[in-house]
Amino acid sequence: MKCLVTGATGFIGSNLVHELLARGHSVRVLARRNSDRRALENAACEWVEGDVTDPEAVRRAVEGCDWVFHVAASYHLWMRDYRPMFATNVEGTRNVLTAATRAGCPRIVYTSTVGCIGLPRKVGGGWIPSDETTPVSAEQMSNPYKLSKWQAEQVALELARAGSPVVIVNPSAPVGPRDVKPTPTGRIIVDFLNRAMPAYVETGLNWVHVRDVAVGHILAAERGRVGERYILGHAEGNWTLGETLRVLAELTGLPAPRLRIPWWLAYLVAWFDERRAALTGQPPRAPLAGVRMARYHMFFNPAKAVRELGLPQTPPRQAFADAVAWFRAHGYVRE
After folding, report:
1. Residues 145, 200, 230, 332: which is the catalytic one?
2. Which CATH code is given to the segment(s) 2-253+292-329?
3. Does 296 participate in catalysis according to the annotation?
4. The model's pTM
């Protein structure tokens, strides 16, 4: 298949490109001129220069493609001005999906996020993982990033209802190789390896190997039902942050931080940090949006994707081992 991947220089996008190439597909990439292309070094791609907010660049990119994977997104938990993020995430999504539909692309896969799935419910002392049927509303979008992705997902659903061949995937928290920036989840691993995490705020995430997320995109193109959402996560990946740090300690031989900060104190520190950021323009170390999300254990059930798509289930422990090895091999860990 002739495939277009937007966001191909990012964590999920670059892994998707490598998986597509390994399966014999040809890949075209839409990327900005100044994008960081380290994750696609030596990848045999066709490059189209442009941005998802530029309709003409998008039109050139989708021309002649069989599959379009719209992975590109602006992911920031703090910005002085959020308008560029909404332009990329919402209007950029509309541009790509509309252009791909008009070009007659047979299958379009839109990359959303589990942040657009309803929040898990706490029952007794535990949490009930959410699935695609868990009720959700715009009011649950607690920060501009989540709200922008929610609005973008509504665009995708609207186009699917109008006949566009769109399938939506909702990755949870991927870990693994090629996290060049790194992402906020990758930063947890890098900080742990560099002994830069003296304490933590307890939360919960659904961890999944980034390779499984990439393969899940391809399976969605092959087998996904138009207009449906699929959580790309791991059935055994619902771990608290404390459990995650203990696994990292076992994998690396480094001690896990023992000091657990109460949520109210983390919120207070983040509030003052954002006041400083507003004055200096330097991003806060711990944005309020991240602290607010930490109140919830973001546990999810990927059974639908496993059942309908055949989503692989690489053990999360292996995902962390692969991520640790990649960060160490690529100079992210201080001697």
Report:
1. 145
2. 3.40.50.720
3. no
4. 0.95
